[in-house]
Amino acid sequence: MDQHRGLTDAKGDFFLERPAICRPLCVGGEVFFFFAESPSLAPRPRKTARAPRALQAMEARSVDAIPRGTEWQYEPKWDGFRCLLSRRGNKVELRSKAGEDLTRYFPELVAAAPDLPASSFRLDGEIVVPRGHGFSFDDLLQRIHPAASRVKKLSVETPALYLVFDLLAAGPQDLAAEPLSERRPALEAFAKAHLEGNLTFHLSPATTRYATAQKWLARSGGGCDGVIAKRRDLPYQAGNRDGMQKIKKFRSADCVVGGFRYASNRIGGRKVVGSLLLGLYDEAGLLHHVGFSSAIKQDEKLALTEKLEPLIALPGFTGNAPGGPSRWSTERSAQWCPLKPKLVIEVCYDHFSGERFRHGTSILRWRPDKAPRQCSFDQLAQKAADPMKLLA
Fold this sequence. Notes:
Elements: E1 22-27, E2 30-35, E3 61-62, E4 72-78, E5 81-88, E6 91-95, H1 107-112, E7 120-128, E8 130-131, E9 134-135, H2 137-141, H3 148-157, E10 161-170, E11 173-174, H4 180-194, E12 201-203, H5 210-218, E13 224-231, E14 244-247, E15 251-262, E16 273-281, E17 287-293, H6 301-308, E18 337-338, E19 344-349, E20 352-353, E21 356-357, E22 362-366, H7 387-391
Parallel strand pairs: 3-14, 10-12
Antiparallel strand pairs: 1-2, 4-13, 5-6, 5-7, 7-10, 8-9, 10-11, 13-14, 15-16, 15-18, 15-19, 16-17, 19-22, 20-21
């Protein structure tokens, strides 16, 4: 979720109901649920609350444009899990932005940290899983699993990386109270001494050049989904948004409305549309479910419902359909109404991966001038920077 992101299930639908053995985890200001240990797994202390006096992660304020000025430092905005990683001797701990314990989900990071020459430190960074020429958020999601055996298997098959963008403590030295203009040089010195040649820990790039930040934003995608701007003159802003801003590149796409879900609440006793289910055609002519939009104005829901209901007809989506099997599926998430492929809508989105929109989309306008068959995956092709090259 965001330095950095909220989570959706394997088909892109919001979690509507949580399993009985899961607990809430906040990533990037959004909440999803992760599984508690089952009795068959290795025991752990009964209380797993965040450690007392634990340093809270600095948060980001979402803005529309990259800020300019000598007081700003710019960094790529990575597509992974924000994580505070600390080591004291052989004890390694991973904490989410909300303070939840992530340690058991990334055993390869726990194993790699003691190999670093430094014996005591605290880092702020991002956990990512590389795939091809990018980072796979879908592979990252699979780590939040109740079975230790499954987590261990995935840690070997799809090992995670830790991208470091801040140094908060090194040995007895507490750097969180120092301005970023001093913490960044200290981090670069730490990386040179301890991270060079390491295959798991990587220094995240940073620049004070506005033009470089613009290039990163323009080439976002594939694992870098925007730009982070941080105030160089401020100490680490634990738990607030005063020192960091995030900027995403928003794009638009024309999609077929292949179905809809009714809202939970009625208007005047009548069921009304709650969300539109979006589809795109592949080269074989199959219509695949790729996401949704629930950004429907309240005063437009009745009229839109009357427009949609006459079009209800099977099959709706002929390829991937909503509510597919997953460990998060619920009876409610599988309830949707298929539509004849007659309506086209242009939506705004921030990220597309794994053949779906990562988050909910915003409605820009209806496109009666566009044929549904023109709504295909190829419109989403984009030239994105290779995130591993940014780390070189």
